[in-house]
Structure formats: C-alpha cells, structure tokens
Amino acid sequence: MSQIDIQVPTWKLVEVGRVVLIRSGPYTGKLAAIVEIIDHKRALVDGPSSQETKVVPRHALALSHVTLTPFTIPRLPRAAGTGPVKKLWEKAEIDSKWASSSFSQKQEKTDRRRNLTDFERFKVLRLRKQARYEVQKAHAKIRATAS
After folding, report:
1. GO CC terms for this protein (predicted)?
2. Is the dihedral of CA 132, 136, 137, 138 positive or negative?
C-alpha cells in the first residue's frame, strides 16, 4: 500500500483569539480580536493596537462586517479583559505580522495611489512609459539577434 499524506484544511474559523479586519462601520480598516462569540452572527471584539490611531474599543460586531485573517492570538481566554488581550496581542506581535502581510501591503499601495496629486499621477505615467520603452527596446534587440 502507498503512503497517503492527509492534510487538514487550514480554514479561517470564527474562534476566540482570531484577528479580524473590520470592513464597515466607524472602525473600517482596523484590526480587532474576537474575545467572545455572542451568537452565530455576532461577536465581541477588542482591538488594543499599539498605535493610538488603530485602537478599536470593545464592542459587539456583526460577523458579516469583518474579514477573518490568518492570525490568531494563542491561548486567549474567553471574555478576557482589555488588559490581558493587549498583553497577548503584543506577545503575538499582531501589528508587525499584519504590516508584513501581502494584504496589508497591497492596501497601503492602493491608498497611496488613491491619494496622489495630479502632478504625481503625471510623473507615474511618464515613468511607466519610460519603463515600457526600455522593455520594448530590449525585446527588439533580442529579436534582431535571434534572426
């Protein structure tokens, strides 16, 4: 018989300690951790970020308004207070993990592009044209030597 390697799917489950990204409401774009599951549609979240502008106070939030992230706070007790959540948040280094994630970097890039001035958009256009010209010149040189 051959060896079969069975792998458990790595689904992002709604669980106590799961870090979520809030998609709507007054805290849009901020991270929070699920502290308690109220029912099948709502959870109690708390976001004790180390940056003052990204803090989310403890409140009930509909699960339809969040995106589950792959990050969790291990061994977070149910209904833990803000103090223990903050300590475990910093111990798990959630802020640095989020900053290095591809989703966060893509979001920062789109925000930066969205806030460009007219002149900055013009400079981006010129740089893209210049890069495209260099690529086309290199391709033409390759085609010329190939034939």
Report:
1. cytosolic large ribosomal subunit
2. positive
Q: How far apart are CA 22 and CA 62, in angstroms?
A: 10
pLDDT of residue 122: 97
The residue written with tokens 């706070």 in the block is 73
Residue extents of the structural domains in the chain: 18-95, 116-146
CATH number of 18-95: 2.30.30.30
Q: CA–CA separation, 130 vs 123, rounded Å?
A: 11
Structure token digits, residue 89: 């948040």
Question: Order of strands, edge to edge, in the sheet holding 56-62?
Answer: 56-62, 42-47, 31-37, 18-22, 66-72
pLDDT digits (tens, 9 = 90+) for 11-30: 788 999 999 999 999 999 99
Query: In this predicted model, what pLDDT tens digit does every residue of 112-147 receive, in sequence order?
Result: 999 999 999 999 999 999 999 999 999 999 999 987
Burial of 34 (0-12, 13-18, 19+ CB in 10 A): buried
Total residue length of the chain: 147
